[in-house]
Amino acid sequence: MNGRISDILTFTSRFFAKPRFTGSILPSSRFLGKKMASLAKIDPERITIELGPGTGSITAQLINSGLPPKNLYCVEFDPKMCEIIKRKFPEINVINASAENLGKLFAGKSCKICAIVSSLPLLSLPKNVTEKILKESQSILPQGARFIQFTYNLNRVPEAVGFTEMRPVECAKVYANLPPARVDAFEKL
């Protein structure tokens, strides 16, 4: 079977098994990935962290934006998705862990991080899990670094995400995605 079709079927099966943790029935489009990468303001000399890379559609666009694979760290909870990412992008750093543990995972590296790009379904995760992820993300980002998040709620107020140490700086809507998505960029104060 074609690798791309196999990846889509794996992603879709993960959605039906755990919809709250997968968030979508289909992987993100390259158009959404391009927008997320552009809003992240990638610095190729620093680390970018991708949360929930799934089958790698956003990952590919981060690398296409000029980020060296060695400076990309993908944090994925699902071991099967980790296998897919490792197969497709053997030069990147894949970490099979929960984003709730970012502080431990990136201890001592926070000054080297330029952005966190998240595909996690923060609005459908349990509230305590989302709060922990946001707290951990804020704690490891240096001043001026960005957190990029997308949602399928096109009218969401950015402040509704729940950050306490970050401010919304940009947003964009991507209609060339199923379903259409809104991308918000936050910057560490």
UniProtKB/TrEMBL annotation:
Keyword vocabulary terms for this entry: Methyltransferase, Transferase
Keyword Methyltransferase in annotation: yes
InterPro entries: Methyltransf_25, SAM-dependent_MTases_sf
Ranges for domain Methyltransferase: 50-142
Classification via Gene3D superfamilies: Vaccinia Virus protein VP39 (3.40.50.150)
GO biological process: methylation
Molecular function via GO: methyltransferase activity
Protein's UniProt name: Methyltransferase domain-containing protein
Organism: Intestinicryptomonas porci
